[in-house]
TrEMBL record:
SUPFAM superfamilies: Galactose mutarotase-like (SSF74650), Six-hairpin glycosidases (SSF48208). Residues 16-270 form the Glycoside hydrolase family 65 N-terminal domain. The keyword Hydrolase applies. Residues 327-679 form the Glycoside hydrolase family 65 central catalytic domain. This is Glycosyl hydrolase family 65 protein. Gene3D superfamilies: 1.50.10.10, Glycoside hydrolase, family 65, N-terminal domain, Maltose phosphorylase, domain 3. The keyword NADP does not apply. Residues 760-774 have a biased composition (Pro residues).
C-alpha cells in the first residue's frame, strides 16, 4: 500500500519527490494523463523499469472466447479486453554507452509532478551512470484536451559536469511485452501480441505504424513527429520495422548544454475505415499539432483547464489532504470523460487495464452526476454512446425473451461481456441507472434537443424492459423478481428496493417523455395503452417494508436471512469475495456495497426522514464496503441522517482510495467512480444537494474539521456557487437568469449580483452506528 505521504500535500498538484520502485505500478496509474480518447499511463519515459506499460485508446479492444465448463443459453460467448496499443511515449536515452536505466548507476534525485491546473506531467531527475557521467533529464508530457488525437512529450537531457555523448531514441513500439497478471478477478486479461502489423514508415523525423486486431478487426495507426534543438554536433536518423518506429538523435554535450526533443504523437483507429483513410487521419492530426507547436498545445491545455476549474473547482478549508484529493479526483474524472465523445467512460478510465477496460453502471451513477453539473456536454456524449449501443441492447433483450433493451453489465462496444449471470446480466438495474442519468441531464440542462433525439429512445426502451421483466400480482402490486441489486453479495433477489424504485422512476419518466414528444414516441411504436401500462406499473411498484421493524428491506425477505458471522471473520479475509464462496454470501445478510442506502440517496423522496435514520442504522453494521463505490454513498446518507463525523470518515475513504491505495489495486488503474464519489460526498453529503424535486435542493452541514466548503454547480445555463461555513451558507448566482433553489425547504430566488445567505443548522450529534468489526472507516482526525 502506498502511504498517502508518498505525495506531498499541495493544493494544485501531486508531487512525488523520490522514485519508489515498489509502488511503481500505483504511481503509473496516479500519474496517468488522458483525455478520455487517448490515455497514457504514467510509465517512465525510457519505458523501463515499468510495472504495467499502458497506452490506451477508448474503444480499442480485442475479443476472446469466454469458455464455460457448462455452457447455457444466452451466456455471452465472446469477451472483450482493452489492449495496450502502440506506445508513443517511449524515449530511450544512452549516456556515453550506458543505457539510462534507473536500476543501475546512482539516482541522485527524481521528482514527478502532475499539475492539475496545467494538465501537464513533469519529471526532473539527475542520474549518474555506473561509469560516473551525470545527466539531468527533464520531461513534460500531455494528452491534449483540445486536440483529442494528440499526445506530446518535451524531453531534455543536459550534461552536468563533463562532456557527454548522448543518444536519444524516440520510438513508437507495438506489442510491448506485458507482465503476467495475478488471479484477482478485477484484474484484466493480458492478451499477448494482439496487434498485427499492416504498415510502417519512417521519413525524416516522422514515424508511423499501422496495425490491426485479428478478432475485433480494428485498425490502429500511430504517428509521431519531432522538433529537435541541440548543439552543432546534433545528428539524427530514423528507421522503422513492423513493431517499431525509431527516431534517433545524437549529440555531444558540454556541461550545461542540452539536447531537447519535442515529440508529437497522434493516434487514429477505426473498425471500418480503410488503411489509407486511417493513415491520413493520423498524418493530418499530426500536422495540426505541429502547426500548433509544443507551446501552443501547452497554452491550449491551460486554457481548457482554466475553464473547467472556473466551473468545477471545490474549495475545502480545514483539511489540506482532502483539498488536494478532491482536485485530483475532479481532474481524473475530467480526463476520463472530457473527450470520450460517443465512446464509453470505463471504470478505470484510460489509466489501467483493470476490469478489462469495461464500462459498468459506475459511469451513469457516479461519474455522470458530477459531469452533469460541471461539464454537461460530456454527459450528452456518454449517453449518445449508450444510444449507439441500443441495437446490441435490443438484441440482448430479445435473446432473453424480454422487451425493449437490456444494457450490458460490463462492456466495451455494447455487447454483454459478463459471463456470470448472477452478478452480471441479472443486475438489470443498469437500465434504470442509464435512464436516471438521462433524466438528470435533461433536468439540469433543459436540453430539449437531446431529449427528443436521445432521451425518448433511451427512456422508452429501458421502460419496456421493466414492464416485461416485472409482473402484477393478483392484488395489482408490481414485482420485479430474480434480479441483482447494487449489493453483489446478494443475487437473484425478488423486489430489490433500489431496482424497483429506480425502475419506477424510469417507467414514469418514459411515460412523461412520450407525452411530451408524441411523434418520436409513435415512431418507436409507443401508444397510449403502453404508456398507461408504464404508469400503472410505476404506481403499483412494490417496495418491501417490514412494519414490525419499521424497516425497508434490501429485497423481499432480506431481513429474515441469517446474518453473516462478522465476529469470526478476520480482517485479512476482506474483500470477502476473494475468500468465501458466493453461495454462502448470497444466503446471508452481508452487504458488499450500499444498496438500500443508495436508494435512500437517489430516490430520497420515497422515504420518510425517520425511516432513513432507522434503515441507515440497520444496514450500516451489515455493510463491509468491499467495493470502492460504497464509501461515498454511505457518506451522503450518514450526513443526511445526522452522523456528520462518520460521513467525514467515509469522505476520506472515497477521496483517498487511490492516493493511499486503500483497496490495494490502484496498480490496475484508478477507481474513477470513487474519485467522482469525492464530489458526491462533498456536494451531496455536506452540501446536501438533491435533484429529485422541482428545484435544486440544499441542506448544508459541515463536519467540525472543515471551516469552509465551496463548490459550483452548472444548472440550466447558470453557474451557481455555494459557499458554506460552519454557521451559514451563501448562494451566489455567478451568471445567468434568476434561478430558484431550495434551502432546506425554503425556496429562494437568486439573481446575479445578489447573493443570499442563510443560517446552517448545527448537525444533531446522534450516536453513530457501528460497522462490521474491522470495517470501520479510518477516522479522519
Ligand atoms: C462493484 C460493482 C462495480 C464494479 C466496477 C464491483 O466490485 O461491485 O458495483 O460496478 O466493481 O467498478
Amino acid at each position: 500500500m502506498i502511504s498517502h505521504y508518498a505525495y506531498a500535500v499541495e493544493p494544485w498538484c501531486l508531487r512525488e519527490t523520490e522514485l519508489n520502485l515498489d509502488v511503481l505500478a500505483q504511481s503509473e496509474s496516479v500519474f496517468s494523463v488522458s483525455n478520455g480518447h487517448v490515455g497514457w499511463r504514467g510509465n517512465l519515459d525510457e519505458g523501463e523499469p515499468h510495472a504495467l506499460p499502458g497506452s490506451y485508446l477508448n474503444g480499442v479492444h480485442e475479443q476472446h472466447p469466454l469458455p464455460y465448463a457448462e455452457a447455457g443459453y444466452g451466456f455471452p460467448e465472446s469477451g472483450q479486453t482493452m489492449i495496450n496499443v502502440t506506445n508513443g511515449k517511449l524515449i530511450r536515452l544512452l549516456v556515453d554507452d550506458e543505457p539510462f536505466d534507473l536500476r543501475y548507476g546512482r539516482l541522485r534525485s527524481h521528482e514527478r509532478v502532475l499539475d492539475l491546473r496545467t494538465g501537464l506531467l513533469h519529471r526532473v531527475c539527475e542520474w549518474t551512470s555506473p561509469v560516473g557521467k551525470t545527466v539531468r533529464v527533464r520531461s513534460t508530457r500531455l494528452v491534449s484536451f483540445t486536440q483529442r488525437a494528440i499526445a506530446a512529450v518535451a524531453y531534455e537531457v543536459e550534461a552536468v559536469d563533463a562532456r557527454t555523448s548522448v543518444v536519444v531514441q524516440s520510438e513508437l513500439v507495438a506489442n510491448e511485452q506485458l507482465p503476467a497478471l495475478g488471479g484477482d478477478p478485477r484484474v484484466g486479461a493480458a492478451l499477448k501480441s494482439c496487434l498485427r502489423p499492416e504498415e510502417h514508415a519512417a521519413v525524416d523525423m516522422r514515424l508511423r505504424l499501422v496495425h490491426h486486431t485479428a478478432a475485433s478487426n480494428q485498425r490502429i495507426a500511430a504517428a509521431a513527429d519531432h522538433e529537435v534543438r541541440g548543439p552543432g554536433s546534433t545528428r539524427s536518423s530514423s528507421e522503422s520495422a513492423d513493431d517499431v518506429g525509431r527516431f534517433t538523435v545524437s549529440a555531444d554535450l558540454d556541461p550545461g548544454e542540452t539536447l531537447r526533443i519535442e515529440k508529437f504523437v497522434s493516434y487514429g483507429w477505426s473498425g471500418i475505415r480503410s488503411l489509407p483513410a486511417v493513415r491520413d487521419q493520423v498524418e493530418a492530426a499530426l500536422t495540426g499539432a505541429r502547426n500548433t507547436g509544443w507551446q501552443g498545445l501547452v497554452d491550449q491545455q491551460r486554457e481548457y483547464l482554466d475553464g473547467f476549474w472556473h466551473r468545477a473547482d471545490i474549495e475545502v478549508d480545514g483539511d489540506a489532504e482532502i483539498q488536494q484529493a478532491v482536485r485530483f479526483a475532479l481532474f481524473h474524472v475530467l480526463q476520463a470523460g472530457s473527450r470520450a465523445e460517443q465512446r464509453s467512460i470505463p471504470a478505470k478510465g484510460l489509466t489501467g487495464s483493470g476490469y478489462d477496460g469495461h464500462a459498468f453502471w459506475d459511469t451513469e451513477t457516479f461519474v455522470l452526476p458530477l459531469l452533469t453539473y460541471a461539464s454537461p456536454n460530456c454527459v450528452a456524449e456518454a449517453l449518445h454512446w449508450r444510444q449507439n449501443t441500443l441495437p446490441a441492447a435490443r438484441a440482448r433483450a430479445r435473446q432473453l425473451g424480454l422487451r425493449g433493451a437490456v444494457f450490458p453489465w460490463r462492456t466495451i462496444d455494447g455487447a454483454e461481456c459478463s459471463g456470470y449471470w448472477p452478478a452480471g446480466t441479472a443486475a438489470f438495474h443498469i437500465n434504470a441507472d442509464i435512464a436516471a442519468a438521462v433524466v438528470r441531464y435533461i433536468w439540469a440542462t433543459g436540453d430539449t434537443d437531446f431529449e427528443r433525439r436521445t432521451g425518448v429512445e433511451l427512456l422508452v426502451e429501458t421502460a419496456r424492459l421493466w414492464h416485461s421483466l416485472g409482473h402484477h400480482d393478483s392484488g395489482g402490486r408490481f414485482h420485479i423478481d430474480g434480479v441483482t441489486g447494487p449489493d453483489e453479495y446478494s443475487a437473484l433477489a425478488n423486489d430489490n428496493t433500489y431496482t424497483n424504485l429506480m425502475a419506477g422512476a424510469n417507467l414514469r419518466a418514459a411515460a412523461e417523455v412520450a407525452a411530451r414528444h408524441p411523434e418520436q414516441a409513435a415512431a418507436l411504436g409507443v401508444d397510449e395503452e403502453e404508456a398507461a401500462g408504464w404508469r400503472d406499473a410505476a404506481k403499483a411498484m412494490s417496495v418491501p417494508y417490514v412494519n414490525a421493524l419499521g424497516l425497508h428491506e434490501q429485497s423481499a425477505g432480506y431481513t429474515g436471512l441469517d446474518v453473516w458471522d462478522f465476529a469470526d471473520t478476520p480482517r485479512e479475509l476482506y474483500p470477502l469475495m476473494l475468500h468465501f464462496p458466493y453461495f454462502d454470501l448470497y444466503r446471508k445478510q452481508v452487504v458488499k456495497q450500499a444498496d438500500l442506502v443508495l436508494a435512500m440517496y437517489l430516490c430520497g423522496d420515497a422515504f420518510e426522514a425517520d425511516q432513513k435514520a432507522r434503515n441507515f442504522a440497520y444496514y450500516e453494521p451489515l455493510t463491509v464496503r468491499d467495493s470502492s463505490l460504497s464509501a461515498c454513498v454511505q457518506c451522503v446518507m450518514a450526513a443526511e441522517v445526522g452522523h456528520v463525523r462518520l460521513a467525514f470518515d467515509y469522505l476520506g475513504e472515497a477521496a483517498l482510495m487511490d492516493l493511499a491505495d486503500l483497496e490495494k489495486n490502484t496498480r490496475d488503474g484508478l477507481h474513477i467512480a470513487s474519485l467522482a464519489g469525492t464530489w458526491v460526498g462533498l456536494v451531496a453529503g455536506f452540501g446536501g444537494m438533491r435533484d429529485h424535486g422541482d428545484v435544486l435542493y440544499f441542506a448544508p452541514r459541515l463536519p467540525e474539521r472543515l471551516s469552509r466548503l465551496a463548490f459550483s454547480v452548472l444548472i440550466r445555463q447558470r453557474c451557481l456557487r455555494v459557499d458554506i461555513t460552519g454557521s451559514q451558507v451563501t448562494y451566489t448566482l455567478r451568471e445567468g437568469e434568476p434561478l430558484r433553489i431550495s434551502h432546506g425547504g425554503e425556496v429562494i430566488t437568486l439573481s446575479e449580483g445578489s447573493p443570499q445567505t442563510r443560517p446552517v443548522e448545527p448537525p444533531t450529534a446522534l450516536p453513530a452506528p457501528a460497522q462490521p468489526p474491522g470495517r470501520r472507516p479510518e477516522p479522519r482526525r
